[in-house]
Amino acid sequence: MKFILDASVPLKTVIPESNSSLAIKLMDDYRRGIHELIAPDIFSAEIGHALTRAERQRRISAPDGWRFWSEIMADPPEFHPHLPMMQRAFDISSSRRIGLYDCIYVALAEQEDCDLVTADEKLIKNLPGFPIVALENL
User: Fold this and answer.
1) Which domain holds residue 102?
2) Rounded CA gap, 100 and 128, in Å?
3) What is the domain count for the chain?
4) Of 25, 26, 81, 122, which alpha carbon lies 20 to 30 A from 73's?
5) What is the pTM of this model?
6) Domain with 90 in it: what CATH number?
7) Cα gap 94→23, rounded to integer Å
């Protein structure tokens, strides 16, 4: 199946959290060609932002942050430019009062006619009716 990959999912493959085993399985299935995973080109920056935040929160060490970013980016999803989706993402963000970065992923899911897979429960809760599926429901 084809999915848009939210940055919250591969983070669970390097930082043990609830549903980490599901994230690892999804990424393993991707490597075996079972799933097609795509993401907007902001993905790498979002991964970096989340990892440096985890460093500041002392959930991981500084050397681990860069190592984890490198691990995730060693086999990334297929990237799509985010600029063509900005108007739709902006519209969703403005009307639903949700962060623009999240809405770029949602706009890509709409464009590609597939689901956005995420571990972000707040995103799922705040955008009912959009093509979003929880990692735990795959």
Assistant:
1) 2-137
2) 16
3) 1
4) 122
5) 0.95
6) 3.40.50.1010
7) 30
